[in-house]
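Researcher: I'd like a candidate sequence for this fold, 438 residues long. If you have to choose between options at a position, lean toward the conservative one.
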């Protein structure tokens, strides 16, 4: 199989690490070729805190995916989350030397690169610069300025910032696990790719991805990303509370949550009881499901309320910014019973659970449509898009030999190469840095 057309998404989570290999089939859907999953050791609240353990977990997941698919992998697109991520709004402009020429992609690139030069706090680095609306010579609300005439090009940007050390640590782990970094993406953006429809992004939607260590939020309106946030709580704090509240070990608490847990305490009768074997010959413990769901309820309410504060900060209550499509829940935490009803109750917004299977070819296994694979599917989709772009550049190069009109095509290819996104340039620089560090 042509390795140029396959890609790998690597989701380094707090509870699990997922490596997903796939390619695009002729219908534009993703055909999954291999999946590897490993327990994540060494990641706390989305941030690597033990390099050696993280490398081992990544290797386990990658080895499983390779064994599963029989394919070799060289590089991967990696997701980044964690409590160090913050986002800000920024507007910037460029004055074009010749307003007689139409605005090209290069102008937009120049404007984007200017934003990357913003001075951040010490130890912080810009991960994404996402243009929102453009203004050309004062004319506002332009979504696509390419091809227009104008001297002054202005834009509002959504800038995502993260800690340099955390990003470097992830890069270090990937390299030590024997892979190259094909790209870094903010995890809520990857999940959004996998589970949101174009109509939802147009109407206005908040994606809440409840992971093990963090809850990620991405808000879209008019098809554009408007707000991102990472809240440093997730499913693990719920398990922790059950462990403390019922005096049981973590493994049992996790099982209880998954098998019998519910976010809505009203539905359990007083007399529904689960018996848990005691440790080393001690008497078994009896736990009522009502108590269990009370503990879960309290924690989930806390997480959702924090997310709702972020949604209000974005301005959901203003008529123009209203999120008509409501909320989409994804991530492992979205599998909790009755969480949809609870979120609707707290926020008063329509809610659905987001499954990544809409983008996956029909013959893929059932388990892959679970919300907990949303980020991995999104990262894989991003990797495939990048590969497609590269391939189209190469194809143009090949057709040079057959075409008469070579000059024009040479120009185009050079343009394409010039347009290598800032993030890719950054990844290249970063690889050099790692190579020299050894």
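Model: Candidate sequence:
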């Amino acid at each position: 199989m042509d390795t140029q057309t396959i890609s790998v998404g690597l989701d380094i989570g707090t509870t699990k690490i997922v490596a997903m290999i796939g390619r695009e089939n002729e219908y534009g859907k993703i055909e999954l070729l291999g999946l590897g999953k490993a327990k994540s050791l060494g990641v706390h609240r989305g941030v690597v805190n033990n390099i050696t353990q993280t490398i081992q977990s990544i290797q386990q997941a990658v080895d499983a995916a390779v064994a599963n698919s029989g394919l070799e992998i060289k590089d991967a697109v990696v997701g980044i989350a964690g409590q160090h991520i913050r986002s800000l709004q920024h507007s910037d402009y460029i004055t074009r030397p010749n307003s007689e020429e139409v605005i090209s992609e290069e102008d937009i690139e120049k404007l984007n690169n200017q934003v990357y030069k913003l001075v951040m706090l010490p130890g912080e680095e810009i991960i994404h610069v996402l243009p929102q609306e453009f203004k050309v010579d004062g004319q506002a609300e332009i979504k696509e300025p390419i091809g227009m005439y104008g001297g002054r090009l202005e834009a509002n940007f959504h800038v995502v910032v993260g800690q340099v050390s955390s990003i470097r640590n992830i890069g270090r782990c990937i390299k030590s696990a024997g892979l190259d970094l094909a790209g870094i993406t903010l995890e809520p953006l990857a999940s959004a790719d996998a589970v949101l429809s174009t109509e939802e992004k147009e109407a206005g939607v908040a994606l809440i991805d409840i992971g093990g260590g963090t809850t990620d939020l991405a808000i879209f309106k008019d098809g554009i990303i408007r707000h991102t946030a990472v809240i440093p709580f997730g499913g693990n704090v719920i398990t922790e509370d059950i462990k403390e509240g019922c005096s049981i070990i973590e493994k049992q608490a996790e099982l209880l949550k998954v098998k019998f847990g519910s976010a809505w305490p009203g539905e359990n009768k007083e007399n529904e009881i689960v018996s848990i074997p005691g440790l080393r010959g001690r008497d078994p413990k009896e736990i009522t499901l009502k108590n269990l769901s009370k503990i879960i309820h309290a924690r989930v309410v806390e997480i959702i309320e924090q997310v709702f504060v972020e949604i209000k900060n974005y301005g959901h209550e203003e008529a123009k910014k209203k999120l008509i499509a409501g909320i989409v829940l994804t991530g492992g935490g979205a599998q909790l019973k009755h969480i949809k009803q609870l979120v609707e109750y707290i926020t008063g917004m329509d809610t659905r659970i987001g499954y990544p299977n809409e983008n996956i070819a029909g013959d893929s296994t059932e388990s892959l449509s679970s919300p907990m694979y949303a980020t991995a599917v999104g990262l894989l989709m991003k990797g495939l898009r990048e590969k497609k772009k590269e391939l189209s550049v190469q194809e143009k190069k090949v057709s040079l030999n057959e075409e008469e009109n070579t000059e024009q095509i040479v120009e185009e290819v050079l343009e394409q190469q010039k347009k290598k996104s800032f993030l890719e340039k950054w990844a290249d620089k970063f690889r050099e840095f790692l190579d020299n560090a050894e």
